[in-house]
Hints:
Blueprint: H1 10-15, H2 33-36, E1 49-55, H3 66-76, E2 80-85, H4 91-101, E3 105-110, H5 123-142, E4 147-150, H6 160-181, E5 184-188, H7 207-215, E6 221-226, H8 236-243, E7 247-252, E8 254-256, E9 261-263, H9 272-281, E10 285-290, H10 297-311
Parallel strand pairs: 1-2, 1-10, 2-3, 3-4, 4-5, 5-6, 6-7, 7-10
Antiparallel strand pairs: 8-9
Amino acid sequence: MKTTACSLDRRSFLKSATLVAGAALGTRWTGSVQAADAPASSVPAGRPTIFKSVKWGMINEPDLSVEDKFRLLQDLGFDGAELDSPGGVDKAAAIAASQKTGLPIHGVVDSTHWGVRLSDPDAAVREKGRRDLETAIRDSHACGGSAVLLVPGHGKDGTHEEVATRSLEQIQNALPLAAKLGIRILIENVWNQFCYQHDGPGDQSADQLIAFIDAAQSPWVGSYFDIGNHRKYATPSKWIRQLGHRIIKVDVKDFNHETNKWAEIGEGTVDWDNVRAELGRLNYCGWATAEVGGGDRKRLATIKAQMDRVLG
């Protein structure tokens, strides 16, 4: 692999396991760009300040306009929304609705990262994935967001080192744009057979995911920690403690590791009391976005109540 100022060779990647992201800059990240700019006195130590959101695709009210969907979320007490890009809802309509209602769009999810993977063995596919990531970065910026959620690759594309090296190269190629626009690239822990053993034990370490994030050597790369996804691999609160300041945003769902099935939020085996405690220990100030089966107003109201119950 050709090494540039924004890429890593194999030796740098292996060495990165000992690095701490952002340490050279002396920074400590909080929940989001907006939250990080708040006066320290407005965020009491030990009390997580969590803004609740949903993925746009969870809103199943087809007769409502984009603006009316924003008003629905507002009426239910949600603090914001997260869109998809490339594609998804018309961004101009969403921006107008956000500005009119005052309900923010806090970011976007890269909508093609599963099919157009940054870790694909085909270089042309990887480059297409990087262009899609850059589209998502631009859309997040245009919408007033602070980040793009990214699944960086899949274990089926090669060895752990091959997947990591390929995806890191494309992430770092996108970093100049991300830094220019002030948009973080946040790595989701998801069932992609990368950085964990999918059918392995339930007490796995976060070491590989930490090494991958730190290998970017950039404050613009962090963790989008999915609380429910990780109940299959480990106790979520332990991963929150390990990932620490790398966590910029969180996704919310629940999982029952005893039955190996998804569960309603608060009805699985996620250790929510400890999750809240660990987020408090980090003085977490940022977004928590539900990623569960959506529906109409009644269903969304149920999700909001569940989030309130487990997160406070």
